[in-house]
Amino acid sequence: MGKVGIIGVGQSAFVRNYPGSIRELAFEGFKEAMQDAKIKTTDIGASIICSAPEYDKQRSPAGVLAEYLGLIPQPTFYLESLCSSSSMGLRTAYALIQSGLHDVVAVIGFQKMSEITSAESQERMGRGADIQWESPFGTMMPAYYAMHAQAHMAKYGTTSEDLALIRVKAATYGQKNPKAVYRKPVTLEMFSQPDNPLASPIASPLKVGDCCANADGSSCLIVANEEKAKEFCQKPVWIMGLGSASAAVNIAGRDSLTGLSVARASAAQAYKMAGVTPNDIDVAEVHDCFTIAEMMAYEDLGFAKPGEGKDLIRSKETYKEGKIPVNVDGGLLSKGHPIGATGGSQIRTIVLQLRGEAGEIQVKDPEIGLVHNIGGVGLYGNVTILGR
Amino acid sequence: MAGKKETDDRFKKFGTVSFTSLTKTNDFITYLEEGKIMGTRCRVCGMTFFPPRADCYNCLSSDMEWFPVTGTGKLASFSRLKYAPVGFEGDLPYTIALLDYGTYKVFGRVAPDVSEDEIKVGMEMKAEVNRLPNGQINFVFRKA
Ligand SMILES: [Zn+2]
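Structure tokens for the assembled complex are given below, as produced in the milestone run.
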């Protein structure tokens, strides 16, 4: 079996209230990826359209987008695993290519969260959990992650300040990312200023500053078999390892609240497939929908031992110059989190890093990169390892 | 109308806002009305389930019996909400929590009269049926 490479990456700017339709939004990420890959739409054998349902008024968006992007009459279909949809899209593209069904596949992620009102969106968020047994108590995503934070603090002595340090790091790089929705600086002091919006409590112990920004956005990955990748691309980035897992939707079905089982399982699979260890990773993108999510990712991915994630951020080892740079594009916290587009954007960042084309946020000479992308509150997990 | 069967939608009474009305575990609500919080146990393989379910994935049986959630559980974690989803604003602030009973866990709310600084991860609590002002029913956790 040959290798599978990523030959083109693109994303739109992540913005609030995108002034256009979903097909126009998807076009932005697609255009950048196609110009990057320098191929024609007829070179693409199939498209996978990734988003989380219910934010779109359009039912079955795959056909609509494929037509707008010039990808008909090739097969197209919709794929969703909440916030990890486009990483699952890459996994599926890998399978379509390795099976020999297609040579080149486009993975297109998008989300236009502003398609519906914020009240409607909040109501849908509340139903992103177990609607029969847990939503009737008034649950929401920040509160579930807050429960993980509370448990992590109780077990390991992690503090609210440790979590705030993660947000400060995200903002450091968000300011340097022209495609980020949140480009303002954040300081640790802001979290203790009572009238600062970032210090406003949401669900204890999490504050507004611990939560990622909603955004509209799109991403696109062009994936090819080894032969086509070498034919089309000077610097293909190869898929070395893929891991994926699922867990109980209800929090009552989880063994631990100090980490995510899907992340640990996906990481173990991806490391094994790639034949590498956490020490071999030179740059990583992790799913920091909340600050605690990045803290748990350090530990679930093996960058730190359980309970020692706080030492990584305190010593700035996850900054660009550190031992394991994490989310040097601003992460979900500052770049924004357009659900279906997020995984594709994370993968784009790592591809650019491995090609040495990341500009101001370039990590020094990375050879192997990792992407950790979670759907729901640890309901779905995908870990992808990429190499030059 | 001739032949129209009455709909068993007892589950719409569960919680401040219920998102489910039809389920084979509707008896859960009747037990709640009687002051009992119940899970299910598979009569074939003995697996216990909370939240209760009608079907056993372990042995594929649907032959279930109800068992009561009794005794105390350890508070695995909690969070006090200052914002709420649509329909829950009137309950703010409230604390959601998870109690670990060993063989199963129970997700619910901490009773509103338990003060915030008394709540600590690891403390023993017990679940108790609770009637909501809007006529709905759920359960809450109190200090054991
Ligand atoms: Zn059974």
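Chain A touches chain B through 40 residues (CB under 8 Å). The pocket of zinc ion is lined by residues B 42, 44-45, 47, 56, 58-59, 61 (CB under 6 Å). Further analysis is deferred to the final report.
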